[in-house]
Amino acid sequence: MQKIYAADHVFTGVERLPDHAVIVEDDVIKNVLPVISLPKDIRVDVQLSLLVPAFIDIQIYGAVQKLFSVFPAVDTLQIMHEHCVSGGTHFFLPTAATNTVDVFYKCIDAVKQYRNIGGNGVPGLHLEGPWINKLKRGAHIEALIHSPDIKEVTDLLEYGKDIIKIITLAPEVCSKEVIDLIQSYGIIVSAGHSNATFKEATQFFDDGIHLVTHLFNAMSPLHHREAGLAGAVMQHPGVMGSIIADGYHVDFEVIRMAKRLMDRRLFLITDAVTETSQGAYLHKREGDKFTSNGILSGSAITMIQSIKNCISEVGIDINEALRMASLYPAKALGIDHHYGMIQKGYAAAFAMLDENMNVIEEKV
Known about the structure:
five-stranded mixed beta sheet, eight-stranded parallel beta sheet, single chain, 10 helices
């Protein structure tokens, strides 16, 4: 079945094309061409101001008072998907912070069931902890944090085979054998909640860790006498890092500096949580952020608002801000050969925006 999207501007992920149309067949982009070149008798299905690649959020914990680790079920994922789409995000990794093995297994089961019923938008699961550094735990539960042994890791990886996409861990509390084992399953290891020194972190990156979770938050900081994990990320040319652009987790001026140093290696996550009065994490909304036991625990931001903040508060070019929410997270996940661009052969995954950069939800 063919569908045609026409827009005042189509942002391909590389350039902005005025008065262009995107032709889609069977959820694949078949062509991108000027509107004027369309046959006069052809019907345009969608007409809008701006068409951009769909946003990708690799770290979100819940939505609409449904925290995934508390309600690990298909209906929670459906709610999260609807919430994400309303902010322009069509692909997301439901994330579970440090918790019990039983909770992790239930989260794995939920993603499996969601896929089995044809659920959209979930490339996999992100487990953040419990193999992190207690000194940089943030809002994570200290009693559940520990260094893993091979059996624990193997059991989890086998149970979550083809479901777990990312594991955030502190590499200094895990053996090289453990890290190698995780990577052998095709799972991305992301360094986070870590107190690694600059030298240690650089060695971990040289050894094959290529991703870092929420730059500056819950990690050894950039200091004038010890550059820490934050400094190592910005200095290492082979490492990508996510960042939370809500103005609470990281000051906008610091994002500006990080962007200058990292350029295309820096991308956006929402790190969004939701109100909950059940489970291990009692997230309480305080304005535009959340706290748990008085500690900053997550954002209350959507991806489109993150992009707007990067444009208005950080001074990032609009096209580059859009790439930070689409092409760059696709690269971090290794799916940029299918997603993050609007070009022939790519998946037909779009965010539709009006002239004020507000998301327009497509009517089905």
